[in-house]
Amino acid sequence: MSIVFVPKKLRGKAKVNQETIQRLLDENDQLIRCITEYMQKGRAVECVQYQQILHRNIVYLATIADASPDNTPPPPTNSTSNETSMTSVDGQGGS
C-alpha cells in the first residue's frame, strides 16, 4: 500500500520532510518499473491499480510543491529584448 494513504482522521497531521518525499519518489520509481513490466508482458489490466497509486503519489507531491513557501519561480528571461537591443546597436554602428 502506498505511504500516501492516510486515514481521514489523520489527514493534515502528517509531517512532510525530505525523507517522506524521497520515499515517495522511490516508491514512484518502483511503481513505474512494475507498470512497465506488466505492460511488456501484455497484462495491462493489472497495471491499473499501480497507475492509480502512482497518480495519487504524483498529485500529493505536486500539492506539496505548490504549498511550499520557498518554491519561487525563476525570473522570466526576455530574449527578444536582447535581440532587439543588439539589432539597434548594430544598426547604429553601421551608419
Structural summary, described in words:
It holds the Pfam family SSXT. It comes from Dissostichus mawsoni (Antarctic cod). It is a single chain. This protein is mainly alpha-helical. The chain has a domain at 16-68. The chain has three helices and no strands. Helix 1 packs antiparallel against helix 2. The longest helix is centred in the middle third of the chain and has 24 residues, at 44-67. It is extended, with a radius of gyration of 23 Å. The N and C termini lie far apart (72 Å). The mean pLDDT is 77.
Blueprint (SSEs and pairs):
Elements: H1 18-40, H2 44-67, H3 79-93
In brief, what are we looking at here?
This protein has helices at residues 18-40, 44-67, 79-93.
Keywords, separated by commas or semicolons:
single chain, 95 residues, mainly alpha, 3 helices, extended
Would you count the extended β strands for me?
Answer: 0
User: How far from one another are the termini?
Assistant: 72 Å
Structural category? mainly alpha
Helical amount among residues, as a percent range?
Answer: 55-70%
Strand percent estimate: under 5%
Question: If you compute it from the alpha carbons, what radius of gyration comes out, rounded to the nearest whole angstrom?
Answer: 23 Å
